[in-house]
Amino acid sequence: MGRLVVIEGLDGAGKRTLTEALTKALHNLGKSVTTLAFPRYGRSVHADLVREALHHEHGDLAGSVYGMAVLYALDRRGAIAAITDDLKLHDVVLLDRYIASNAAYGAARLHQDAGGEFVRWLRELEITRFGLPVPDAQILLRVSPEIAAERAERRARSEVDRAKDAFESDDDLQVRCASVYDRLAAEGWLSPWHVVDGTAGSDADELARLLVHPG
Length: 215
Fold this sequence. Notes:
Elements: E1 3-8, H1 15-28, E2 33-37, H2 45-54, H3 65-77, H4 80-89, E3 92-96, H5 99-109, H6 117-129, E4 137-142, H7 145-158, H8 171-186, E5 193-197, H9 204-212
Parallel strand pairs: 1-3, 1-4, 2-3, 4-5
């Protein structure tokens, strides 16, 4: 079986760029890699409902922290077979966002920390009840909320299909979410974490070696 590796971070942290760089670095080490990004917009009805709610459709759905978390979780539940198959075929399955995103944003919206009730509930839902594969490693691409917000704003201006959603537009939420992410990483929530400075530029080659040889 391959290794399930997740890249996490704030909106605008640069997860897509790191995914591309890490994929190249792993290929250079002779490893086969496949990638998947969550939410799976355009491929999952639950993901599409999330996007629509975040752009002020479906009444007050976006206001329900638990309701939105269930939609995110159902999107991932629908991908279990694909992830499992990919782990049989590839050395590394690299995910852009996974369960920790749901934990971090939901806890932040409720003004809870990583040790709060929401994170415990979310783990029970996604891991125990839905049976999602536990990651082998998680990467926190850490940038300040201010830099992440600037990047998200530039992306919204330059990409016609990337208008900022309700979460991305909430600066205070991003600050709280960064704090929850830091504690999840520090506590090794679900699996070991690697913290990468997203402002200094990541050493994808070194990170790839750590992922391939975790000991």
